[in-house]
Amino acid sequence: MDEKYEVIKQVLLDILSKMDISAEIEQRFLEETVIFNLRTQDSAMLIGQYGANLNSLQYLARLLAFKRLGESVQFVVDVENYKKSREDFLRELARQAADRVRETKESLLLKPMASYERRVVHAEIGILADVVSESIGEEPERRVQIKPKQ
């Protein structure tokens, strides 16, 4: 395994240690991105409401990894495969929203989402021929709008 991924794994272990949380860290590759999945008894605390704590954990891990490595490395932090489940949910949400837009011929605005969640929705909508999506608004209220294709 690449040495930089060992550094990232150690960053995660250091953060968890400071939080007094024990976890097993599994790694897997998805295309060009490595995913660090944390398996722990404290998953609810690490995930937080709608993944807010998990997003913060990933942000902190990226900052510390950048500081130690001197370069930016693309990686994802997940807890008990929460993000995978969330992505499946978001793809289904995008399909249902597209169906509704087709029926009503009116735009539909989804709830605010993190950037990676919006990307999942945009990717799902992108494979459809008759609807389009765009992100509107400012963080933390940035959301996806789905509308009929002109």
Overview of the structural elements:
The chain is an alpha+beta fold. It is built from five helices and six strands, in the order αββααβαβαββ. The protein folds into two domains: 3-80, GMP Synthetase, Chain A, domain 3; 85-148, Ribosomal Protein S8, Chain: A, domain 1 (2-Layer Sandwich), CATH 3.30.1370. It has helices at 3-18, 43-47, 52-69, 82-104, 115-126, and strands at residues 24-30, 33-39, 75-79, 108-109, 131-136, 143-148. Helix 1 (3-18) packs across helix 3 (52-69) and helix 4 (82-104) crosses helix 5. The termini are far apart. The model has no long low-confidence stretch (mean pLDDT 94).
Give the H and E element order.
Answer: HEEHHEHEHEE
* β-strand amount: 15-25%
Helix and strand composition category? alpha+beta
CATH superfamily label of the largest domain: K homology (KH) domain
- Sheet of most strands: 3 strands, mixed
Radius of gyration using CA atoms only = 18 Å
Global morphology? elongated
Number of helices: 5
CATH hierarchy, class of the largest domain: Alpha Beta
Helix proportion: 40-55%
Q: Largest beta sheet: what is the strand line-up?
A: 1-2-3
Mean pLDDT: 94
Our count of domains comes out at 2
According to CATH, the fold-level topology of the largest domain is GMP Synthetase, Chain A, domain 3
Which residues form runs of ≥5 with pLDDT under 50?
Answer: none
CATH architecture of the largest domain: 2-Layer Sandwich
Secondary structure blueprint with pairings:
Elements lengths: L2 H16 L5 E7 L2 E7 L3 H5 L4 H18 L5 E5 L2 H23 L3 E2 L5 H12 L4 E6 L6 E6 L2
Parallel strand pairs: 2-3
Antiparallel strand pairs: 1-2, 4-6, 5-6
Helix pairs in contact: 1-3, 4-5
